[in-house]
UniProtKB/TrEMBL annotation:
SMART domains: LysM. The keyword Hydrolase applies. One of its GO terms (molecular function) is lytic endotransglycosylase activity. This is Putative cell wall hydrolase. It comes from Thermoclostridium stercorarium (strain ATCC 35414 / DSM 8532 / NCIMB 11754). It holds the Pfam family LysM. The keyword Signal applies. Keywords: Hydrolase, Signal. InterPro entries: Cell_wall_hydrolase_SleB (IPR011105), LysM (IPR018392), LysM_dom_sf (IPR036779), SleB_dom1 (IPR042047). Residues 1-24 form the signal peptide.
Length: 255
């Protein structure tokens, strides 16, 4: 084999080692993403995403463009996010996450990422079944509104942690067993959460809060089980007596 042929063969072998996606789309990284969570969403692995995108580490940053296994769908007249998700056999949550689309407004000609080969679809459905609790779109919106009211100017981790506290209460027998029940619970005549008392719960949720709520609802818990949160300026001795699970921004999370 001559030198040129050897070089060509070596390139051919190396190329065959790089994973390829039968259907690929470009995903824009948002705050809170990791290669692990993206791998779960798109039915692949963080290692495959690294190799396919020529990454030398697992560090990714908001705004970064990544090639992911997915198809691109063009919205048609009469479409809705629900119908598109149903058409491709994926969850509505997966469709929202893949496109950073937390409202229901779409338009004809809009391009949407569908995380959907058959294997990806199955994986997405499995991930959905691993949600921390079952929830509706109304639950997602209400939780996001609480997060917005409680932690709008706080780091993303603090936002997810607020959502996680609500989820942890839903799963704890000492609290109501629904998201709405937990958020609107009264104790000794007072609501558990100040935004319910002062009406801030009725303000629209921010996009980042919606994403944080989605992460919390799907099992992300930076607190590892906290049931309470409060501001670092709080003077309530009972709250401060609780074991601290996490400090994030100006927020304290406790067991």
């Amino acid at each position: 084999m001559n030198k040129k042929a050897k070089v060509f063969f070596a390139v051919l072998v190396l190329s065959s080692l790089v994973p390829t996606f039968a259907n690929a789309a470009t995903y824009t990284v948002v705050k809170g993403d990791s290669l692990y969570t993206l791998g779960q969403l798109f039915g692949t692995t963080s290692g495959t995403l690294m190799t396919r995108n020529g990454l030398k580490s697992t560090v990714i940053y908001p705004g970064q463009k990544l090639e992911v296994p997915a198809t691109v769908y063009t919205v048609q007249k009469g479409d809705s996010l629900y119908l598109i998700a149903k058409k491709y056999g994926i969850t509505l949550s997966a469709l929202r996450k893949a496109n950073g689309k937390w409202d229901d407004m779409i338009y004809v000609g809009q391009k949407l990422i569908i995380p959907g080969s058959a294997s990806v679809t199955a994986n997405s459905a499995a991930s959905a079944n691993n949600s921390a609790i079952s929830y509706t779109q109304s639950d997602l919106d209400l939780l996001a509104r609480l997060i917005t009211a409680e932690a709008n100017n706080q780091p993303y981790t603090a936002k997810v942690a607020v959502g996680a506290v609500v989820i942890n209460r839903v799963k704890d027998s000492r609290f109501p067993n629904t998201i709405r029940g937990v958020i609107y619970e009264k104790s000794y005549g007072y609501y558990q959460f100040t935004p319910v008392q002062n009406g801030m719960i009725n303000k629209p949720a921010s996009q980042e809060a919606l994403k944080a709520a989605y992460d919390a609802l799907n099992g992300v818990d930076p607190t590892n089980g906290a049931l309470y949160f409060f501001d670092k300026t709080a003077t309530n001795k009972w709250l401060w007596s609780k074991p601290i699970a996490l400090r994030a921004g100006d927020m304290i999370y406790a067991y």
